[in-house]
Amino acid sequence: MTDASDRRAAEERFQPVFSHLGAVAAYARRRGSRDADAVAAEVMTIAWRRLSDVPRDDPRPWLYATARNVVQADARRSARAAAHGAGEPGDLAPPPEIPELDPALAEALRSLSRLEREALLLVAWEDLTPTQAARSLGINATASRVRLLRARRRLRARLDEASNGSHDETTHLDLETT
Amino acid sequence: MSDSIIVRLRRANPVPEVATAPGTELFARITALPGDSRLVASERRPQGHRRAIVLAFAVLAAVVLASTAYAVSHWLGGDVVKPPVTKREYSAAQKQLTLPPGYSWPTFRFPPDAENSVTPRGAGGGHAVMAAQWSWECYWVAAIRTHDDAAAARAHAALNALLAHNTYEAPAGAPEDWTPSPLPTQPFMVYAHDGGLEWIRAGYRLAAAGDATRIAQSCRANVPG
Asked: Complex ipTM above 0.85?
């Protein structure tokens, strides 16, 4: 095989991975990224450089796991910028496109552990199966189903408690820092 | 899964639609970067060759298990060191390199079971060079975005100095563990001869012209600290 044909083969393999660019950008936006398109581009760059690690049959769990790390890295940089004053990129990005949720739902989601919340949102917002969500979170499928069950029960209980509250406000859900 | 909680969450999805922009230009930009060398290697290697390598590694592992790390390091030519030496190299390198204001050296951790592992001499210094490089890149991104010309110039100068004094490119066809000879006294890192170093230089040229895109990608991917 020549270098040119190696590259063509790699590009062909990368093409179906890259087709999830929009889904990765949507994931980043749903998790409150200030620059979701840049996150998606970065995730795809990482995927290209580590293409042999990306599962060929189902790349989405891997892509979401990578996007999660990139979004969290941004959040850590922003937190550090806040500690050191201005001068960090996360602090200086364009105005955030943070998802808005009704306050009761946002509060109920905050009451879950980070892993439970992410498992639930991967299923509800990213449309993954519980098995795919488990893959993305690096846990086994049985543990994922148990966490999802608990998360749904806890979320329902919290929403029932808050059911007499006002629903006409919206609030921001900062998934990286809660 | 469609119980009422999931349905309610789905209805509250803040980004219900996924854009399907083709991103042709981005695809071309990404695939112009050096790809995953493991991919080509694994697809090229014939099955028989792979078996031979597995056998060779089995023999090597048996030899390694039957000896101490000290003995292995001498057997390999005295060019590899144990974790305490690598950590000392990392600490010493911190005295020779500078980080931008507000940054600190990340902790260098070996896995708990790595006490008998060996690492090429100089790897601790290389780790410090990378940490410094990524920190200055992040600092430069911030400087460009705030139009802080003085900070940008400081970052540019620091990164140029790292490239000039602490960075080497292996010759074409050199083995993966190539190191300069004689071994430099300053901390150093080595890039493979695959266009990666030129890509970084090009990113710095863009940044010097006010375009932070590439160094922002590097900063985001490598997030020091």
From this structure: no
